[in-house]
Every structure is written in C-alpha cells, then in structure tokens.
Amino acid sequence: MKxxxxxxxxxxxxxxxxxxxxxxxxxxxxxxxxxxPEAAEGEKLTTVALEELTDGELSYRLVRRRRAEA
Length: 70
What we know:
Strand content: under 5%
Order of helices and strands: HHH
Helix content: 40-55%
Number of helices: 3
C-alpha cells in the first residue's frame, strides 16, 4: 500500500487542502456509481482517488460560488 503525503497531493492540486477536497469529492462520486460484484474487493475509494490525483489522471476545475441575491 502506497502512502500519499500532503506534499504529493499539493504538487498536483496546488495545496494539500484543495487536494484532499478534490479526492474526497471524487471518491463520493465513484461510490455512487453501480459496482460490479467482483470490483467490491480491493482498495478503498479514497485511496484510489488520491492515487489518481497524485498520478495526474484526475482533472478538476474550480467553480466560484454564486452569492444569493437578497
């Protein structure tokens, strides 16, 4: 099992906090997809998401929040 350090995540995402947020959101997205029965065994989804992020396979874009008009 590979260990992903904050430095590894920050190299791809700009900073470690953004990297963890992106990986967590991707892991939640993958969790919602239908699974094949044989795919249930293996690494955790967060580990897979961090691996894809640090390998540069996961791309994302930041979307600014819109303020609600009063």
